Structures are given as structure tokens and as C-alpha cells.
User: Which sequence fits this backbone?
């Protein structure tokens, strides 16, 4: 690849990385991402073919709730680079995909690192917010996105600079305990966010609703929509019954400490 | 007060629609889409609040935890905009009310958006594009990209407008105390949703085996005695459907035992532990890194 092509591929990889975190315009879907890399390297048709094949594998990968799918963005970009570098034409599509899928799983590790790093950005934003520094918040928001772009752009650049065989060895050297442990941790850290919301919203009158939601969610047949319906109905019923009961106007909706028995207990321990 | 009411125009709302495409840009493990929410709502914050203190308060309010399907964030923004508008014009809408509305809506809407967009519309459009692309047809990527983005833009804009109108309708009826009721109801709904999300989305599975019991004859499928070939398969499935287990021994893990108490108990415990640590001013970053380290250590010793 010429220097200009390498630069163009890195730019595409950066855009694809940004798109994959925002997950709306969907340039990161392999069918689009591989085609773009094919376009800038002058092998559009080959890129489109690879994109189509890889897409059939990654079609169902989706970030649902707080869970994360393997990194389709890195899979698409990396396999396209491997294919173009390999110079085998359409015959190289199979092996390129075979290498890309473990890369997509490894890419999950990179995603986790960035998403942890952006926690620091969230705290900087808090400080900016205290000063009502709107431009500061906007800038840090996009610094966060830049990290996500680099998450794909840097591996793409490395892939073009180092031989493919080394990549394969590196992937095989990743210990199972590290990848599995990171995945398990990823399933647990979402609790931190919920804890913050609860600390903010909890008051005496809403705790029963929390436990109702928790207990009912164990029934797997209930989708989140049905749970939503139940939640709305319970709240409406509560308010309606309270209205007909008469003398219950004293209850407040504040989140003050004295109003939150469980919060007080947690604070006092 | 009626004369100098500040209103968000259609142009303002369109600006925020465009900004919402960057909702997840600074996604983080602590508060997820919070930076994107603040970023999206900045035009409204600028227009509605002029004093530094009010702006700071509004920014902080929208830097709280938020996570939903990226398209389904738009109706939530619509309602939030209506509430912020009322607040800026002097109505009694407190922070807990706005947070309650956002949190109450995000769970169910994510529950609607994930299956609809991620598991139905996107695979359909992707397979359309991919099937063309596999044979090298350059139209493949275009078909997917254009179809998807027309759909996405329409969904995002019209649901946001719908949310805004619905939100305004709620706040218009101030005299009947409807807003007060809705905001209290939203907090209840919010807590209900958080409770169920902890059960569904915080995943902890303890792997240690508590007991291995040899089962009685007839309680498991006796693979040796099945007929060969497809007949055997049929027999095996019939027996499995009748409730027989797959192996001769019944393995019970610690998780199975915990699930018999209350499913998700460990997730609940972890959440309360996080609440406790946060109340004692432990930094969320320390908690997050600690959880990762513990997860790896527990996995190595075989607990998780």
C-alpha cells in the first residue's frame, strides 16, 4: 500500500470507530466499512465482496442493554486490511474473516478500556458543568469520541505496519483467564451506574416499587415492555388510591435523606 | 408571565435532533450516555437559562446516568425539553421529576427499540445489502446505508416531536396537579424499572459446583439404549421434552442454589454495596476498576 492509501485507511478506520460507538448511522457495519476500505485502496469490488461475507456472520451482533457484542468495527476494518495486504484476491476472503473474528473479540477488550477511560472524562465534565462551561463539555464529549476512533484507527495502522503472522501469534497468546475475567467484570460494572441513580432518586414511597421491579424481572417471560406496563399501572394505581384515600397529602416527592430509610441505613453503617 | 414565556422553536428542536446522533460519543461505564444527553440538550439549556447558576444546574442535571436505545432517546428528549421549558418559565418541576421521567422511559423504550431495530429491521436491511455485496455488486452497501438512514432519521425526528407534544400536554395542566402526580408517578416507575434492570442487566454467575448427585434410572436419558440414527435422535428429544435430564448425574452449582432463593440476589447485593461505597465518597472509578480486578481474580480461583 502507498503512503496515501495508508493514511486514507487510517482515516476510514477512525470514522468507523466513531460510528461504532454512536451506533446510529452504521458506517461501521462490515458491508459498509469493508467497502470503504476497498474504495480507498482501489479494490472496491473486493472490499464489497468481503463486506457482504463478513456481514452475514456479524448480522446479529448488537449491543443490547448494557451488554456488548464483539467489535464488528474492528472486525470489518482488520479483515479488509488483511485481505488487501494478502494480495490473494477473492480467495483471501475466507482466511481474512477467520482472522477477523478473534480480532473482534480482542477488540472488545479495547472497547472496555476506552469505556473505562471515558469515566475520567465524565468526571471532568462534572467539573466543567459546575462552572457552566458549555464549550468545555462539548470539547470533552468529542475527546471521548476521538478515543473511540483511535480504538480502531491505531490497530488498523499497526496491522498495515506489522506482518499478519505476528498478529495471529499475538491473539493466540492472550490468556483465557484475562479475556473471560474482563467479560465477567463487564457484566458487573453496570451496577455502579444503577447505584448512582438509586442514590439520587430513592425516597420512602418509591422503595417498594424498586423491589417489585426486581422480583418481577425474574420472570423471564415478561419483556422489558411488559415490565414497563406493570410499572406504569402500579404507579397510576398508587396515585389513584392515594387520591381516594383522602388525608395523605403529607407525603413528599423529595429525595431528602430523612425521607429515605434504606439510604440512611447504608449511610450509617 | 405569559407574554415573555421562552419557547423552543422547531429550529431549536431540529438542532437537538442533529446533536442526538452523537449521543454515545463519550459513552462510559459509570453513567453511560450521560455526556451525550448533556451535549444534545445544550441548545435548550443555552436558550432557556441565562444565569450561570441555572445553566450549571441544568448541565449537572443532565450529566446523570442515562442509557437507552439510541433512537428511542429522542422521544425522551422531546418530553425532557417540554419539562425543561416549563421549569425555565417558572413551573414547579424539580430535579427528581426530570430524572424520574428520563429514567422511567429509558428502560421500556430500550426494551422496545432493541428487538425492533437491532434484531428485526437492521438484520433485514443488512441481509438485503449483504446478499447483493457478496457477489461484488457495489449497490449492496448503498442499499443498506440509504434505507437504514432514511428510516433512522424519520424515527428519531418524529418520535422526538411526539415526545415534545406529549410533554407539553402534561405540563399545560398545572392547575389539576397533574404534573405533580406525573412526576411522582415517574419516580415510582423509575425505581420499578431500575429494580428490574438490575435483575436483568447486572450479570453475576457463581460457578462452583455444590453437589453432584447420581440420579435414579428413568430420570435421565439412557444414551446406550437409544436406537441408532434419526430414530434415536427422535427418542432422545421426546424423552428430553418429557423432563428427563441429559446426563446420569445432576450437577448443582452455587448459582442454582442462589436462584432458588431469589434470582439476581448477587446483582442486588452488588448494587447495594456500590450504593454504600458511593455514599461513603468512594470514587466510582475506584469501584469500577475494583470490580474488574475482582472479576478476574474470582474467575481465576473458579468462583465466577
Assistant:
Amino acid at each position: 500500500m502507498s503512503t496515501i492509501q495508508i493514511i486514507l485507511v487510517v482515516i476510514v478506520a477512525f470514522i468507523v470507530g466513531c460510528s461504532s460507538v454512536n451506533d446510529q448511522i452504521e458506517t461501521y457495519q462490515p458491508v459498509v466499512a469493508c467497502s470503504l476500505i476497498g474504495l480507498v485502496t482501489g479494490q472496491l469490488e473486493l472490499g464489497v465482496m468481503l463486506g457482504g461475507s463478513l456481514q452475514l456472520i456479524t448480522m446479529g451482533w448488537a449491543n443490547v442493554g448494557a451488554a456488548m457484542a464483539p467489535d464488528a468495527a474492528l472486525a470489518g476494518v482488520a479483515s479488509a486490511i488483511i485481505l488487501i495486504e494478502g494480495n490473494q484476491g477473492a480467495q483471501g476472503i475466507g482466511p481474512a474473516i477467520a482472522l477477523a473474528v478473534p480480532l473482534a473479540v480482542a477488540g472488545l477488550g479495547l472497547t472496555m478500556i476506552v469505556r473505562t477511560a471515558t469515566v475520567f472524562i465524565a468526571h471532568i465534565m462534572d467539573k466543567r458543568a459546575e462552572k457552566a462551561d458549555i464549550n468545555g463539555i462539548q470539547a470533552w464529549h468529542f475527546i471521548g469520541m476521538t478515543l473511540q476512533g483511535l480504538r480502531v484507527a491505531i490497530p488498523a495502522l499497526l496491522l498495515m505496519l506489522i506482518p499478519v503472522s505476528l498478529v495471529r501469534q499475538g491473539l493466540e497468546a492472550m490468556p483465557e483467564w484475562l479475556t473471560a475475567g474482563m467479560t465477567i467484570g463487564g457484566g458487573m460494572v453496570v451496577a455502579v451506574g444503577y447505584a448512582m441513580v438509586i442514590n439520587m432518586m430513592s425516597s420512602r414511597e418509591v422503595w417498594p416499587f424498586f423491589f417489585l421491579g426486581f422480583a418481577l424481572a425474574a420472570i423471564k417471560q415478561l419483556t422489558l415492555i411488559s415490565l414497563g406496563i406493570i410499572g406504569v399501572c402500579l404507579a397510576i394505581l398508587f396515585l389513584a388510591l392515594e387520591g381516594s384515600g383522602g388525608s395523605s397529602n403529607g407525603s413528599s416527592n423529595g429525595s431528602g435523606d430523612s425521607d429515605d430509610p434504606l439510604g440512611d441505613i447504608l449511610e450509617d453503617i | 408571565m405569559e407574554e415573555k414565556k421562552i419557547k423552543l422553536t422547531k429550529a431549536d428542536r431540529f438542532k437537538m435532533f442533529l446533536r442526538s446522533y452523537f449521543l454515545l460519543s463519550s459513552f462510559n461505564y459509570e453513567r453511560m450516555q450521560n455526556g451525550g444527553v448533556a451535549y444534545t440538550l445544550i441548545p435548550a439549556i443555552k436558550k432557556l437559562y441565562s444565569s450561570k447558576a441555572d445553566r450549571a444546574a441544568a448541565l449537572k442535571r443532565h450529566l446523570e446516568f442515562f442509557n437507552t436505545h439510541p433512537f428511542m432517546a429522542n422521544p425522551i428528549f422531546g418530553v425532557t425539553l417540554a419539562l425543561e421549558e416549563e421549569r425555565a418559565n417558572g413551573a414547579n418541576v424539580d430535579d427528581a421529576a426530570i430524572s424520574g421521567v428520563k429514567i422511567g422511559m429509558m428502560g421500556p423504550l430500550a426494551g422496545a427499540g432493541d428487538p425492533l431495530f437491532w434484531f428485526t429491521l437492521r438484520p433485514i436491511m443488512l441481509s438485503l445489502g449483504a446478499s447483493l455485496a457478496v457477489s461484488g455488486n457495489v449497490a449492496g452497501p448503498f442499499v443498506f446505508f440509504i434505507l437504514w438512514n432514511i428510516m433512522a432519521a424519520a424515527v428519531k425526528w418524529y418520535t422526538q416531536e411526539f415526545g415534545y407534544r406529549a410533554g407539553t400536554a402534561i405540563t399545560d395542566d398545572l392547575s389539576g396537579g397533574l404534573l405533580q402526580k406525573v412526576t411522582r408517578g415517574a419516580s415510582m416507575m423509575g425505581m420499578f424499572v431500575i429494580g428490574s434492570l438490575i435483575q436483568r442487566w447486572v450479570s453475576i454467575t457463581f460457578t462452583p459446583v455444590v453437589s453432584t448427585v447420581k440420579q435414579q434410572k428413568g430420570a435421565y436419558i439412557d444414551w446406550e439404549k437409544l436406537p441408532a440414527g434419526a430414530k434415536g435422535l427422535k427418542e432422545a428429544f421426546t424423552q428430553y421434552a418429557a423432563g428427563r435430564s441429559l446426563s446420569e448425574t445432576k450437577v448443582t452449582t452455587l448459582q442454582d442454589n442462589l436462584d432458588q432463593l431469589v434470582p439476581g440476589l448477587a446483582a442486588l447485593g452488588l448494587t447495594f454495596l456500590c450504593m454504600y461505597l458511593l455514599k461513603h465518597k468512594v470514587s466510582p472509578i475506584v469501584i469500577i476498576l475494583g470490580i474488574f480486578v475482582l472479576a478476574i481474580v474470582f474467575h481465576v480461583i473458579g468462583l465466577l
Observations:
- Residues 10-201 of chain B form one domain.
- Chain B touches chain A through 126 residues (CB under 8 Å).
- DSSP finds eleven helices and two strands in chain B.
